[in-house]
């Protein structure tokens, strides 16, 4: 009967357990953050500092931060003779000054912004499409008598049983024939077809959890099934939709292999573009790091904005009342 | 308000027949109760009337109009679900207003009617609260509010008190019946709880395995059970059954048990089976010294002014509800006497009651469909 004397609760973790858990989480977070911190640091170094050995770690102590990486990321430059540079009017702005100091002039903007915009359009477009199709299919699978329902669900899952890139060559040939190579539409359709299976499965789980009585109540009260779906089912599925959307978005945003294979110009996304910023000398790591750092932002913003839903959604309805 | 007529209603799921030919009429303004054990097809029947399930065969008439294959939203029926189905993303006011919004009623009118419904149910103070924080009883009232606000032709209620605790259920029973009396709305109420049904209903349909076993007023069902199932399902403790062998003919007014003659209401019908069952309500049993059916007192259950005495006889266990003042001790050998004019005689095989003088006069408030 020792439990009677001790005042600890049986459900609340003890202080010691909490401490151990916090230390473990903090340690894990630190380890995962190192690459991100490194990217951030590299993006504000000069090319020379970025490849120096031993590495320069602490800004203002080991190295002087510079915006050269960001300047180079957004511009294309060409090397000129000192005589020519002297003949030019004085540089305007910090970036041009840095460029001149490297014996170069800015000749125009880089392709980073259009590539980034392609990434945004393709990732958000395919996520939107995956969610629309996924929700509709999941609702049908959840509520209606679909012939061969289990087989169809398995078929949908089976599209994920090999790495998508395994079908790269057929898709490459198919896209070439259809004129979808290097088009945003082509990439949206491709990422949607990969994500929609995930979306159907995740969303079916969420919709299954919403009692049918809600729609039935609405349908008795004068609404059509479609109206009941909009007004009653969808609002309750938001959590699941958000969680699914984040998964879809992360895949589409980060996808590299298909992007390399199928896009080269007009529809090229940021992932295949960023590595080629390194330039002819192979030394412009700060620009690559700057491109990567900016590339991380949308997912971060999206996830932080929706984290309230995400946290509830990721537990897959386990704590649903 | 409306009359609901259900004819030969059948519902088959795959190869399982959940409802096997239901026939009943709910008169305008009547409180009609579908009563039966879990899984007997009550919900399925209700859902067909509401339009949430299509019947396999049979028809449903609302005010004479055949609505068998009409959509739920075209029937102008309101339903209260067992778990209330309040929309968690809307507050109380929006929940109650929801059925009105679909009808295109103006905003002011909606406001007025929602507040009127809230006043009727005394939940005005809850209107702007979220439904997730409400107690079971308040949820129940909000669900009722959502049903009455539209002033539908009829109400369907599927075990609406099932989620409430026993104490509160009793209060809600009274409230529900009062509400019904005020609105005068035709109501079909599903429950497995005989007390709820007995205390609220005008007419009860007792269902068993997809069939309606008996249709009648609470009193009729209690006093004149049509089958052993009904006799056993209704009453607490239920009717006692004494198993006997023999045959009876029309006109008989007694049966023989172990050589003794037990008086029964004059039979209007003879038996075709040789195994019979005598049904006696516990309150129609008295302990005597001279009774011809004898047994040993097995236990007593003290209920205040009354007690339930359990007696083991060679014909089966008999429970007697008698005054607490009468002494009865475990192990004692007692004789039993039965109140002759209240007994029922069943055929053991079919479970059906044999018609007797008990069934002669029609009872008040009964409507057979
Ligand atoms: N959609 C369905 N599919 C298959 N069987 C069902 C379905 N709905 C109900 N049943 C079966 O029909 C029987 C009656 O169900 P129900 O009407 O819900 O009973 P009750 O409401 O009286 O408890 C049960 O045995 C149940 O398993
Ligand atoms: Mg039921």
Task: Describe what you observe in this structure.
The complex is a heterodimer of chains A (321) and B (369). Chain A has helices spanning 2-5, 15-43, 47-50, 68-74, 82-87, 93-101, 112-143, 149-158, 168-178, 184-208, 212-220, 225-254, 257-262, 270-273, 285-305, 307-314, and strands at 75-79, 104-109. Chain A has 321 residues and is mainly α. Mean pLDDT of chain A is 89; it is low at 1-5 and 317-321. Chain A has 16 helices and 2 strands. Chain B is an alpha+beta fold and 369 residues long. Chain B is built from 8 helices and 20 strands. Chain B has helices spanning 42-50, 92-101, 107-121, 136-148, 166-183, 194-200, 218-223, 228-233, and strands spanning 4-13, 16-26, 31-35, 57-62, 65-66, 77-80, 154-158, 186-191, 203-208, 211-216, 240-245, 254-257, 260-263, 275-280, 285-288, 293-302, 306-313, 316-323, 333-338, 344-347. Chain B has a 6-stranded mixed β-sheet, sandwiched between helices. In chain B, a hairpin with a 2-residue loop joins strand 12 and strand 13 (260-263). In chain B, helix 2 crosses helix 3 (107-121) and helix 3 (107-121) packs across helix 4. At the A-B interface, helix 11 and helix 12 of A face strand 6 of B.
| CATH fold label of the largest domain in chain B | Rossmann fold
Shape of chain A: globular
- Which sequence of SSEs, written as H and E, runs from N to C of chain B? EEEHEEEHHHEHEHEEHHEEEEEEEEEE
Gyration radius of chain A (Cα, Å) is: 26 Å
Number of helices, where a helix is a run of at least 4 consecutive DSSP H or I residues of chain B? 8
Q: In percent, how much strand structure appears in the residues of chain B?
A: 25-35%
The total tally of domains of chain A equals: 3
CATH superfamily of the largest domain in chain B: P-loop containing nucleotide triphosphate hydrolases
Return the CATH architecture of the largest domain in chain A: Orthogonal Bundle
Mean pLDDT over all positions of chain B:
92
**Uncertain residue segments of chain B:** 364-369
CATH class of the largest domain in chain B: Alpha Beta
Instruction: Output the radius of gyration of chain B.
Output: 24 Å
Bound heterogens, unique: adenosine-5'-diphosphate, magnesium ion
Distance between the termini of chain A: 35 Å
Secondary-structure-based class of chain B equals: alpha+beta
Structural class of chain A comes to mainly alpha
CATH class of the largest domain in chain A: Mainly Alpha
Number of domains of chain B: 2
* Biggest chain-to-chain interface with counts: A-B, 18 and 23 residues
């Amino acid at each position: 009967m020792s439990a009677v004397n001790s005042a600890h609760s049986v459900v609340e973790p003890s202080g010691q357990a909490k401490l151990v858990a916090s230390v473990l989480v903090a340690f894990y977070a630190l380890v995962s953050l190192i690459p991100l911190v490194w990217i951030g640091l590299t993006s504000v170094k000069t090319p020379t500092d970025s490849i120096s050995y031993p590495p320069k770690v602490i800004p203002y102590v080991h190295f002087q931060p510079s915006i050269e990486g960001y300047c180079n990321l957004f511009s294309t430059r060409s090397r000129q003779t000192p005589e020519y540079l002297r003949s030019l009017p004085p540089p305007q702005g910090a970036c041009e000054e840095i460029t001149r100091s490297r014996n170069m002039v800015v000749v125009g903007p880089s392709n980073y912004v259009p590539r980034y915009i392609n990434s945004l359009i393709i990732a958000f477009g395919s996520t939107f499409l995956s969610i629309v199709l996924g929700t509709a299919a999941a609702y049908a699978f959840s509520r209606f008598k679909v012939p061969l329902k289990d087989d169809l669900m398995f078929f949908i899952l089976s599209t994920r049983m090999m790495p998508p890139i395994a079908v790269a060559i057929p898709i490459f040939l198919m896209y070439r024939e259809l004129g979808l190579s290097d088009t945003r539409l082509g990439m949206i359709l491709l990422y949607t077809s990969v994500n929609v299976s995930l979306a159907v499965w995740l969303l079916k789980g969420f919709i299954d959890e919403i009692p049918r009585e809600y729609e039935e109540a609405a349908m008795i009260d004068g609404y059509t099934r479609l109206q009941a779906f909009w007004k009653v089912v969808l609002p309750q599925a938001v959590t699941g939709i958000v969680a699914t959307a984040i998964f879809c978005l992360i895949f589409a945003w980060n996808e590299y292999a298909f992007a390399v294979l199928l896009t080269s110009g007009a529809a090229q996304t940021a992932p295949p573009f960023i590595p080629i910023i390194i330039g002819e000398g192979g030394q412009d790591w700060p620009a690559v790091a700057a491109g990567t750092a900016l590339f991380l932002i949308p997912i971060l913003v999206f996830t932080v904005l929706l984290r309230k839903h995400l946290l509830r959604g990721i537990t897959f309805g386990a704590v649903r009342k | 308000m409306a009359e609901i007529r259900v004819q030969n209603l059948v519902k088959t799921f795959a190869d399982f027949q959940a409802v096997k030919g239901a026939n009943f009429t709910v008169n305008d303004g009547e409180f009609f109760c579908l009563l039966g054990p879990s899984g007997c097809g009550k919900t399925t029947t209700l859902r067909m009337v509401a339009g949430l399930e299509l019947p396999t065969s049979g028809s449903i008439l609302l005010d004479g109009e055949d609505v068998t294959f009409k959509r739920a939203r075209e029937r102008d029926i309101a339903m209260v679900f067992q778990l209330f189905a309040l929309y968690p993303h809307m507050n109380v006011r929006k929940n109650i207003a929801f059925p009105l919004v679909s009808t295109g009623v103006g905003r002011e009118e909606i406001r007025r009617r929602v507040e009127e419904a809230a006043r009727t149910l005394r939940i005005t103070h809850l209107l702007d609260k979220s439904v997730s924080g409400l107690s079971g009883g308040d949820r129940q009232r909000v669900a009722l509010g959502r049903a009455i606000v539209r002033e539908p032709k009829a109400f369907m209620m599927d075990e609406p008190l099932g989620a409430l605790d026993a104490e509160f259920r009793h209060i809600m029973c009274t409230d529900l019946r009062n509400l019904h009396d005020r609105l005068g709305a035709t109501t079909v109420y599903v429950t497995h709880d005989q007390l709820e049904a007995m205390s609220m209903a005008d007419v009860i349909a007792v269902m068993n395995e997809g069939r309606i076993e008996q249709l009648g007023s609470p009193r009729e069902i209690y006093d004149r059970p049509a089958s052993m199932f009904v006799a056993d399902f209704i009453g607490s403790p239920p009717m006692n059954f004494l198993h006997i062998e023999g045959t009876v003919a029309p006109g008989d007014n007694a049966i023989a048990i172990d050589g003794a003659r037990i008086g029964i209401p004059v039979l209007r019908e003879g038996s075709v089976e040789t195994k019979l069952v005598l049904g006696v309500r516990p309150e129609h049993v008295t302990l005597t010294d001279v009774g011809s059916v004898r047994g040993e007192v097995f236990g007593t259950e003290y209920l205040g002014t009354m007690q339930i005495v359990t007696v083991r006889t060679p014909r089966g266990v008999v429970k007697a509800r008698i005054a607490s003042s009468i002494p009865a001790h475990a192990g004692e050998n007692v004789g039993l006497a039965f109140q002759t004019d209240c007994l029922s005689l069943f055929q053991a095989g079919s479970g059906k009651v044999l018609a007797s003088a008990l069934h002669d006069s029609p009872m008040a408030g009964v409507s057979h469909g």
